[in-house]
Amino acid sequence: SIPKLREVFKNHFLIGAAVNPITLKREEELIKFHFNSLTAENEMKFERLQPEEGKFTFQHADELMDFAAANGLKVRGHTLVWHNQTPRWVFEDGRGGQADRDTLFARMKAHIDTVVGRYKGLIYAWDVVNEAISDKGEELLRPSPWLEIGGEEFIARAFQYAHEADPDALLFYNDYNESDPVKREKIYTLVKSLLDRDVPIHGVGLQAHWNIESPSLDDIRAAIERYASLGLKLHITELDMSVFMHDDKRTDLKAPTEQMLEKQAERYRQIFDLFKEYKGHITSVTFWGVADNYTWLDNFPVRGRKNWPLVFDLEGKPKQSFWEIVG
Ligand code: G3I
Fold it and tell me: Where's the active site on this chain (predicted)?
């Protein structure tokens, strides 16, 4: 018989999946069986919730919340302030120019008040700021309209507004390439500076978009250690394991090779063993998807190239990767 993931890991961390309106319906049974946490893959992003100023569209987000409440799942909110999937009006003055700083922060506050306020007490953790660190060289913060108009203070503001809107919600800084040694130190520097200024931040989200080759286990461990040393909670927020190594440009595969699946299973076992070592630090592990029949990686880095990065196959059946992590 098939063990439930949420039972297997109940003494370690919550086990979650990112869903969209289609997968939430199609994979309903799988979700209810295995998971105790949900994240909206897209439906709680700024452009989805407030496409026009003051016009909020909560239908899909509410449907996810209703499903979670009806089935006893927790919800992680994703995401409030990001350079991506944010409508242009947020940064514009309506006369062809750029919004000024006060206007930008007023819009940020209005958005956060409304969204976090609506789900107060229901969404227990929020990715408040997503991907604000630069991937380039020495540069600390990623260039974006948030930074350009608001200055680096935009990050602290977002956390303060979120904390005011729901003082009980756990507030996270979330990023990718989190295990790369250079980016790891930048994330550490940012989060440490927030803590030093008493900004209300409670955790670091490690997206964990990994592949069967990299990052190395040593780099993953070093990142976990470094962030944990700040005394914050760690959530693995967007886990998947691409079957393609970094330089694999093949686009003709109709199915993953045996070798890919074996390597993937071994890696999944290793990282779950690692996560379990950090009991009390890592309190949630969320997959960025449910089953291999749909993943954002089908369109990244190559549009239309199928990938198989999750632990359930195209039919929602457990893969070798599943059996290794529950083993
Ligand atoms: O809904 C529109 C549709 O109306 C339009 O016709 C179509 C044309 O391209 O686009 C549709 O929107 C797409 C959306 O996903 C919904 O499927 C966007 O193009 C597409 O860019 C968007 O991709 C999402 C991506 O974030 C955007 O940055 C992925 O689904 C989502 O998995 C991904 O998630 C991010 C996390 O939020 C943050 N960390 C990285 C992670 C992976 O990129």
Answer: 238
